[in-house]
Write a structure and sequence with these properties.
elongated, 23% helix, single chain, mainly alpha
Length: 349
């Protein structure tokens, strides 16, 4: 290893350089071993700069500015030593190398696309996120496109990748024409920064839908009754009752409880199994991975994941396609005759 390169990256050892010529061969070897040990440790420039700020996206302060805009991560970071505290990530990085860096840490001032899918794929991280069929949030309403890393970054610009979901860190905070950079109070507020009529994001306008389409009217409908208990839901209806978990009639139900962005066989991005949504159900129930299959306008497979009537009536004892029972008129019926987005007169959807 070139000693001059070490001195260049570590000014604090510069004063030692003129003395090297005075050292014996044995002393020179000792100095070199000390310098190599320093480089190999986590205490110098290989330290993760996010430890203080919690933001793992690199900025112009990377390496006190010296590393910003540099292309070769290997110049400072030794692959065998990084990510020791996150063994699942380390196992991937050890195999795939420095090509994984941009996915979590950004492009370091370079015009290169971040590589999210190199780790977030069905083999390496199959449950982060849970994936499904060909329909996905691909910013194209007419055609199913393959997921790209560029699409990931639109919604997850600066996630801290710590395994704990935080609304205003793990989701991009879009600048809205009405509320500006106001933090999200729930996941649905993130969706509604785009899915609205009058204040969409200019970079991703929704242009191909009629003015009454759900994709456009989502904001209006959510503010009415699609939040479920957020408006006037109570426990006095005919078909009351919830499955095990934390859902209640005053629960705000997020868009992502029923819809998934990361792939589904179902139309309208309806989840294809319970693992993709309904997070307030018990872990024991969700781990059984009950499927959701739509049959025309029969959404009973979806509804029955959370709803289980206490007093059985109107076919509530009949199984849906996934084997669960507990919703009325459970199979072969048109659910949206009575239950549709934004029905202001109803307590449920």
């Amino acid at each position: 290893m070139n000693v001059n390169s070490i001195v260049r990256h570590h000014p604090e050892v510069y004063a030692a350089k003129p003395c090297l010529g005075l050292l014996s061969a044995k002393g020179f070897i000792i100095v070199m071993l000390i310098l190599l040990a320093a480089l190999w440790s986590d205490s110098l420039w290989a330290r993760d700069i996010s430890q203080a700020s919690g933001n793992i996206i690199l900025d112009a302060s990377h390496g006190n500015g010296e590393a910003w805009g540099k292309r070769n991560c290997s110049s400072c970071h030794i692959i065998q030593k990084i990510h020791k505290n996150v063994p699942k990530i380390k196992a991937i990085v050890d195999v795939k190398g420095y090509s994984t860096c941009t996915g979590c840490h950004g492009s370091n001032g370079l015009k290169t696309e971040r590589q999210c899918l190199i780790c977030h794929n069905a083999k390496d991280l199959p449950l982060k996120p849970v994936r499904g069929g060909k329909h996905r949030h691909d910013f194209n309403a007419k055609k199913d496109l393959l997921t790209t890393s560029g699409q990931c970054v639109v919604c997850h610009e600066a996630s801290d990748m710590n395994g704990v979901f935080d609304l205003n860190i793990d989701l991009t905070v879009f600048n809205d024409a009405i509320v500006g950079l106001q933090p999200y109070a729930n996941k649905s507020e993130f969706c509604l920064r785009c899915h609205n009529v009058n204040h969409q994001q200019k970079k991703w306008p929704i242009t191909s839908q009629s003015s009454r389409n759900q994709i456009l009217r989502a904001e209006d409908h959510f503010r009415k009754t699609d939040a479920h208990g957020g408006v006037d839901g109570d426990a006095n209806g005919f078909y009351n009752g919830f499955r095990t978990g934390s859902y209640a009639y005053k629960t705000i139900v997020d868009c992502s409880d029923c819809h998934t962005s990361h792939g589904t066989q179902n139309s309208n991005l309806i989840i294809e199994n319970v693992l993709q949504g309904a997070p307030l159900l018990s872990a024991e129930f969700r781990n059984k991975a009950y499927k959701v299959t739509l049959a025309g306008d029969d959404y009973s497979d979806l509804c029955v994941l959370c709803h289980q009537m206490q007093t059985i009536s109107d076919g509530g004892d009949l199984p849906t396609r996934n084997g669960l029972s507990g919703v009325h008129f459970s199979e072969g019926r048109n659910c949206i005759t009575c239950h549709s987005h934004g029905e202001e007169a109803q307590k449920g959807l």
